[in-house]
Write a structure and sequence with these properties.
- The chain is an alpha+beta fold.
- The protein has two domains: about 55 residues, GTP Cyclohydrolase I, Chain A, domain 1 (Orthogonal Bundle); about 130 residues, 2-Layer Sandwich (GTP Cyclohydrolase I, domain 2), CATH 3.30.1130.
- It has nine helices and seven strands.
- The strands form two sheets. The chain has a five-stranded mixed beta sheet with strand order 5-2-3-6-7, with helices on both faces. A two-stranded antiparallel ribbon has the order 1-4.
- A hairpin with a 5-residue loop joins strand 2 and strand 3.
- The longest helix is centred in the C-terminal third of the chain and has 16 residues.
- The protein is elongated, with a radius of gyration of 21 Å.
- The protein starts with a helix and ends in a 5-residue tail after the last helix.
- Bound molecules: zinc ion.
Length: about 200
């Protein structure tokens, strides 16, 4: 094999998505690198458990926001709809540690509304991926704007990041707040402040 061919093969191997069985081997290796013995009693089934837990926490990649939002009800409604205090559990893509918090979503319908359970499902579809909080916030707002086409969407996420609490700056009480305002929530001060007033009791 020429140098180029073997280099190509090496790169292909690096890019390959691990097979199902390789999940467990990879987690065993990780345990070894941590200085542990993957064969000791307490750790024997850990690779399987970690694999299942990681697969669940990243199951959002398999969910299509368009499908979650595809059924709307045609209604003459032009008052703001708010779903607040939606639990958010996500994984920070920089440290693979959880960030946990709450999300508040509002939209100003034009001619159709969403079933209320769709919004928490949408939040989970984006949160169950490797994320940064800023992108998570924008993705939720933009998906609703794109698929439901309301007059505007607002999304606020407040979360505590374990990568800040357990390591790094070790600030246990710092919470990050991110927001994305689209359409009337961006252009109208009145709409935006109505939304912020309505969620104020929820913001810590
Ligand atoms: Zn982090």
């Amino acid at each position: 094999m020429s140098d180029t061919q073997s280099e190509l093969k090496r790169l292909q191997q690096l890019l390959e998505v691990p097979e199902k069985a390789e999940w467990e081997k990879t987690i065993q290796l990780l345990l070894r690198l941590m200085g542990e013995d993957p064969n000791r009693e307490g750790l024997r089934r850990t690779p399987l458990r970690v694999k299942k837990s990681l697969q669940f926490l990243t199951s959002g990649y398999k969910q299509d926001p368009a499908k979650i939002l595809n059924r709307c009800f045609r209604v003459k409604q032009d008052e703001m709809v708010i779903v607040k205090d939606i639990d958010v559990f996500s994984i920070c893509e920089h440290h693979l540690l959880p960030f946990i918090g709450r999300c508040h979503v509002a939209y100003m319908p034009k001619d159709r509304i969403l079933g209320l359970s769709k919004i928490p499902r949408l939040v989970d579809a984006f949160a169950h991926r490797l994320q940064v909080q800023e992108r998570l916030t924008t993705q939720i707002a933009e998906a609703i704007q794109e698929h439901v086409r309301p007059h505007g969407v607002a999304c606020v996420v407040e979360a505590s990041h374990l990568c800040m609490m357990m390591r790094g700056v070790q600030k246990q009480n710092a919470r990050a707040v991110t927001s994305s305002m689209l359409g009337v929530f961006r252009s109208s001060e009145k709409t935006r402040s109505e939304f912020l007033t309505l969620i104020r009791g929820s913001l810590v």
